[in-house]
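Database export, one record per block. Field names are fixed; values are copied verbatim from the stored entry.
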Amino acid sequence: MSMGERYLIIDMGSTKTEIVLYDASLTVLAAPSFPTPRSHHDGYSCIDPKSYIPDILRTIAGLELESASTEPLYVSVTGMGSTILVASRDGSVLYPSIAWYEEAKRLVPSQLPRRWTGKFPLPSYPAYKVPILKEAVGAHVASPAGQRPDVLFLSLPDYVLAALGGYRSWVTDRSFASRSMLFDDAHSQWDTAMLSELDVGGDELPEVVSAGEVIGEPSEEVRRAAGLPAKTLLLAGMHDHIATTYAANAIRRALGAALWINPGGTTESVVELYPVSETLVTEAPTRMLNTEASWRPDVLAVIAYPTLSGAILQFAETFALDWSVSEALFDRAPVAAPPRRRLMTKDKGILPAGDCPDTVEELWKALILSTQYELRSACDELTELGHANGEREGVLLLGGQAKVSRLRTLKSAVMQAPVYTARAGNIAALGVALLLHESRSGRAADRDAALQRIAAGVRVENADSELRGAAERGYHRYREIVDQVDRAAGRKGAPFDKDKFEEQRDNEGNHEDTGRR
């Protein structure tokens, strides 16, 4: 009996790599995983493909994919977008992938132009790691006159996809390119100013394609090692945040509801989708928001990063923390927890003088509460950008945090809206599989049925009116404290002045010989 096409998605996480196999109806057939291998080079925590690729092939081989099958198998990737390694075109790794959380200390944000990248500057972005790699392997690997440079800077998922194809094709999709901070989100191409500043040539970067585009077939060596069917195609993948957003957007369409996307897995975030616009790309970083190029050149994801993760919650539990959600929780003096963007730029956030919690438990409660206030604030910022896609009636929560009932209640109370919780397994892998299904099979009925299955399992929860009232009062106190401290620190004292911003941007352009189009 024919099984139809299948989709195999390799999700490369910083601690775990999961390989998810879907059938033609987008039902999960298997999802084995293994720890992502680590090594240390020059004091940096790295992921070395020399051990990683064999682990991936062994895990795929364990799926027993029926190499004699005549049905197509579509293979793609998702995972970390902040990794970067340097390789030669024959596949030799010249320096392994520096992990996403490693702070690069060779450059400070003010040293790089970034008017078109759409990014609030974080030292974890690959752009800041380029000088480390260049110093480690030399500015360029000598190549014969008239030929392309042999050096390539690329993300770990891009390298894995190239390895599966026998290093015959070097490509990246727009979302991985965008995450590098070397990409121009407004014009959907490598950013000439950034490349000039870092002395990186366009030939030293992979070709940019749309997610889901066919880029080749596995090499015979890979086909035999992994037991792949004869009709196997490799397709460009997506950065995990964009893949999650793609799936979440499809789910909210299936629900027929206008919801904020809150992929609360590895890190708390909130995402909205917009058409590409230069104004949005340049304005978002002034709000400490990021744009990221998405699966098509005409789509931007705008993302805010309050800081709360499943790992943080697990760590808090080691203190036997009791943080039941009650009206009393919202009466405490709020603490503006340092969001990820502030932590990475050495802005330690806000702890109001005289109101510091006097026990570890009270501090954790204040921090957890404040991350949800920050989430609400981020949604307000997105709305104030003026590009919002209409009113939002709730929050679509995905990932690890969706399993924490107290957090769902807290989120609903602070957001003054119901929380929709989707149980969809590995949501990033699902996002890539959905895109491949849409682009390859053309059977919309199968895709719609899969999304309806997920939508039918969505749980909707709503905090009661008393909790909502207490949370609203607490949120306004939080905003007052944040605004006071930000004004005193000179960070934020007035509403965004678009004319002033554009004048400053133009003045920057007059002082920079960027070769900007």
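Remark 1: The CA atoms of residues 88 and 151 lie 5 Å apart.
Remark 2: The first helix runs from residue 49 to 61.
End of record.
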